[in-house]
Amino acid sequence: MADLRANVKLRKANLDDMLKVLTWQNAPGARQFCRQPETISLDDHKVWFEKKLAARSSQVYIMTESGQDVGMLRLDQITPESDQYEVSLIVDQHNKGRGIGKAAVEAAKNLIKSGTILAEVLPANIVSAKLFVALGFKPYEHPDGGQWFYFQTLKA
Ligand SMILES: CC(C)(COP(=O)(O)OP(=O)(O)OC[C@H]1O[C@@H](n2cnc3c(N)ncnc32)[C@H](O)[C@@H]1OP(=O)(O)O)[C@@H](O)C(=O)NCCC(=O)NCCS
């Protein structure tokens, strides 16, 4: 298989991405590993998406592969002064299992110059856990419990 990493890129999301992100998020099987497993309504999604795009504490990216939009990756700063960022991602159901999620998280590491990337993975989400472990993330003891992983980026 050709090395996907060269073809997978992250671009800043914009309002035109709103509907495709909702489609990815509501696709069959997509919500079972989310904190809120219910289907998302268009109205709720609009409010959420606009708020995320506007938030200084959030960076919302669209994953592209060879120019095609194939998923979303988000980095949410845990608190305003914190150097900790929670990563969340979703890959379009037709593009899962092709290494895109892995390549996108690898690319996201370069976006955080100095800090810690955290990821919460629900216990049944084997693919997600494999992805983070393969990229060098280590288990993280979160004060609130749950299965978390962390990756410390290096200072420049
Ligand atoms: C989790 C998710 C982002 C992974 O993205 P992806 O592009 O499908 O994953 P990749 O193809 O990069 O694969 C990641 C790892 O899982 C493995 N994998 C992929 N699909 C698999 C499957 N069906 N069964 C077992 N392992 C699988 C890959 O081999 C790879 O492991 P490796 O590095 O040890 O080889 C994607 O499945 C998704 O969008 N899921 C729904 C939302 C979600 O769970 N988000 C994460 C919440 S933290």
* Major beta sheet, strand line-up: 1-2-3-4-5-7-6
- Share of helix among residues? 25-40%
Q: Can you tell me the number of structural domains?
A: 1
**CATH architectural group:** 3-Layer(aba) Sandwich
Please report the distance between the alpha carbons of the first and last residues.
32 Å
The largest β sheet comes out as:
7 strands, mixed
Q: Could you say which structural class the secondary elements and strand pairing correspond to? A: alpha+beta
Which spans of ≥5 residues are poorly predicted at pLDDT below 50? none
Radius of gyration: 15 Å
* Top-tier CATH class: Alpha Beta
Give the beta-strand count: 7
3D structure, described in words:
The chain is α+β, with helices and mostly antiparallel strands. The protein has helices at 18-26, 42-54, 100-109, 126-134, and strands at 8-12, 58-65, 68-77, 84-91, 116-120, 138-140, 148-152. It has a single domain, classed as Gcn5-related N-acetyltransferase (GNAT) (Aminopeptidase), CATH 3.40.630. The protein is 26% helix and 28% strand. The protein is globular, with a radius of gyration of 15 Å. Bound molecules: coenzyme A. Coenzyme A (COA) binds at residues 30, 33, 88-91, 96-102, 119, 121, 125, 127-128, 130-131, 134.
Secondary structure blueprint with pairings:
Layout: E1 8-12, H1 18-26, H2 42-54, E2 58-65, E3 68-77, E4 84-91, H3 100-109, E5 116-120, H4 126-134, E6 138-140, E7 148-152
Parallel strand pairs: 4-5
Antiparallel strand pairs: 1-2, 2-3, 3-4, 5-7, 6-7
